[in-house]
Write a structure and sequence with these properties.
Blueprint lengths: L4 H16 L33 E9 L5 E10 L5 E8 L4 E8 L2 E5 L2 E3 L4 E4 L5 E5 L10 E8 L5 E8 L9
Parallel strand pairs: 1-10
Antiparallel strand pairs: 1-2, 2-7, 2-8, 3-6, 3-9, 4-5, 4-8, 9-10
Length: 172
């Protein structure tokens, strides 16, 4: 590596870690059933009694740094069967992955479990959605459309409001 590459790599890595909020422990939060910013445009279609019944709330995206962004939200499953979040799609990036964070180390995962009668909490310092190679630079106050894909339930479209870079609802 030359002298310019190392500082650029360090800055990029620092920005990615700051975006994902991987420096603190994840905390559980309860979800709200009211329609607020970051909520889904609908929950999965009326499933039979022993199927997942998913609802999304509390979603947001801190203002992106460079061509990286992170997304956070809560998926609540009031149904009688577990499901899995398997992928996320959006117009702002063709490279969207889901990451777990354990012991301050981030790693890409194939899916996240959503237990029956439970929730999946994607929050700063913990599990999250990672957007890389952004094709657009959303500004604070705008909304980013994403679609969550599941193993069993139908996809759910969500509008993530873009917040200030250090926004953390757990500290409000």
């Amino acid at each position: 590596m030359n002298r310019r590459t190392l500082p650029a790599l360090a800055v990029g890595l620092s920005a990615a870690l700051a975006l994902a909020g991987c420096s603190s422990a994840s905390s559980a939060s309860s979800s709200s059933s009211s329609s607020t910013s970051g909520s889904s445009s609908g929950s999965s279609a009326n499933p039979p009694g022993n199927a997942p019944r998913l609802k999304v709330s509390g979603g947001y995206m801190p203002r992106p740094v460079g061509d990286l962004a992170a997304g956070f939200l809560v998926v609540t499953n009031s149904g009688g069967a577990a499901d899995k979040l398997t992928s996320v799609t959006s117009d702002i990036s063709d490279d969207i992955t889901i990451h777990s964070t354990e012991n301050q180390k981030m790693r890409k995962v194939e899916s996240f479990d959503i237990p029956a009668g439970g929730e999946l909490n994607l929050a700063r310092g913990g599990n999250h959605i990672m957007f890389m190679g952004l094709t657009q630079q959303p500004k604070q106050g705008q909304k980013v459309s994403i679609e969550l894909h599941f193993e069993k339930a139908d996809p759910i479209k969500v509008e993530l409001p873009v917040k200030e870079i250090n926004y953390n609802p757990a500290q409000r």
